[in-house]
Sequence to fold (281 residues):
Amino acid sequence: MVSAPKSTWVFTSALVMSGFLPCRAAAQQPAETAIPDKVRLFIPYKDYTQEDNKRILEMYKWLRVADVSDGMDVVGLQNIGLVDPEVHALWKDTEKFTHRTVGIAVTARYVPTNRREPQMDNKTISRWYSTITSEAFMKVLFPGAVLVIDAMDDGESRSIGSSNILSWKKLGMVGLVTGGGLADTDEIIYHKVPVWFRRLARGIRPGRNELESVNRPVTVGGVLVRPGDVVVADGDGVVVVPRERAEEVAKAALPFLDNITRERYIKETGQNPWAKKPGGE
Fold:
């Protein structure tokens, strides 16, 4: 077993001692439970069973971003779902391709805060983490989830760091995509958590942003992402497939597999969709 670098433990210990690591168990701010009459939500939330999630993910396990993009073209979804390439991979594994990720979207949105505190002591920081800028989405993460965080405009807020991202991974998160920033990149790379992000951000969330919603439609890199959509990410970036078209797109994308992946597909499934049919050219 490989132990973490000494610098990682020193770094983490310093955050704990300074009070900058929130208590994850308490990080669940109260949410609105009713929609006021004057509020209208026009994009509905749809829940999917884990059985259906697994079925869809099995169809995408072989597919790269390029393949999915081609499949989207075939079914008439040209230029849909392709996330701005400024949202890029933090690290790449070009030997075993362990950075490649396919998952089901769980969404969250952080927005810049308009509140200010006289000072940010440990008590105030803790209160913010538990009531204003929490990680309430932890309750809805599941095995095979890709956490998609809309945080493009929250400036230097490091909504993602090495401690919380490992907590999310333990709940089943297989990768993370954000239009905002993150910190602790050395530690995240060390732990090999797949991440696609836009920028670095060094400041703590308290005093900088607020959690606006969980599992509502968000925008990342110019793309609409709804909970339950399929997210595919690799060295070419990120593509998001509308869930209602996911099966159709996967079938259309399969013929575009590269030769190496084709060989793996044939070996593991015993099927060869690329074989020439009798009488064919």
Observations:
- The chain has eight helices and twelve strands.
- The longest helix spans residues 6-18.
- Residues 1-27 have pLDDT under 50 and may be disordered.
